[in-house]
């Protein structure tokens, strides 16, 4: 007969593994940090609101710049060269010239727009169909739309010398100025992101510092008992992380609200110019990156403040 087993209450408890204890403390720190945020709703709302605004401003500028780039068209479209042929050049001669130019190595694509096609497009886009129909004849010339392969400036100067070409329309200067403005805007967005990111770090750091001051006696006891800096720092790191994650979600909500507020009137304005342009916001991958980045911002701010405090109060041996 086997020996009777001891009741469960009389068995010695098996100590938890080190990994289990580490995991339990992480979970406890996260839950406790969220609880501390909920116990101070107004201070929490103020901190999250300031962080959300600091995150929203550079992100909104980046989104605006991305939509400006889409609105101005693709790079290939902005590099196009329009050759307005002389009025006496017939359509057959224009087709022959187009076939001849397509054989050049410095031209990627070439499209011919006949006077009839130009008149029809003008009638559709201008809203003056009846007035245009009353005009005798067709005063529009044939137009060759050229997309260069390499340097559009050199190609435009070469095409200007063709005997059948009357006017060469090339928007290289306008495109270069636009590119410079866009580069300036991107640099401005980075500068704003850096400055406002520092501001968000300061906001989180000051909030965590106040929380540390309210718990300094508890921290002192833990240090006397031999608790490691990582053990003491962990709840405050999760506090900063929680602030950052919620601020990132609020920033996305603000950007989404701005997108919905501007999308309809901007689409109506673009449609009045014959364009199908519509605002594009952040996709799911961008949204996840924004939330994670703001969470890391809060984590770093809390880590800097807590680390500085622990270095100042570490007991001497």
From TrEMBL:
Domain annotation FtsX extracellular: ranges: 80-168
Keyword terms: Cell cycle, Cell division, Cell inner membrane, Cell membrane, Membrane, Transmembrane, Transmembrane helix
Keyword set includes Oxidoreductase: no
Transmembrane segments: 42-65, 188-208, 236-258, 287-310
Subcellular location: Cell inner membrane
Keyword Hydrolase attached: no
Pfam families the UniProt entry points to: FtsX (PF02687), FtsX_ECD (PF18075)
Membrane-topology descriptor: Multi-pass membrane protein
Gene3D superfamilies reported in the protein's UniProt record: 3.30.70.3040
Domain ABC3 transporter permease C-terminal: start-end pairs: 191-311
Quaternary data: Forms a membrane-associated complex with FtsE.
Main function: Part of the ABC transporter FtsEX involved in cellular division.
Family in the record: Belongs to the ABC-4 integral membrane protein family. FtsX subfamily.
Entry protein name: Cell division protein FtsX
Gene symbol of the encoding locus: ftsX
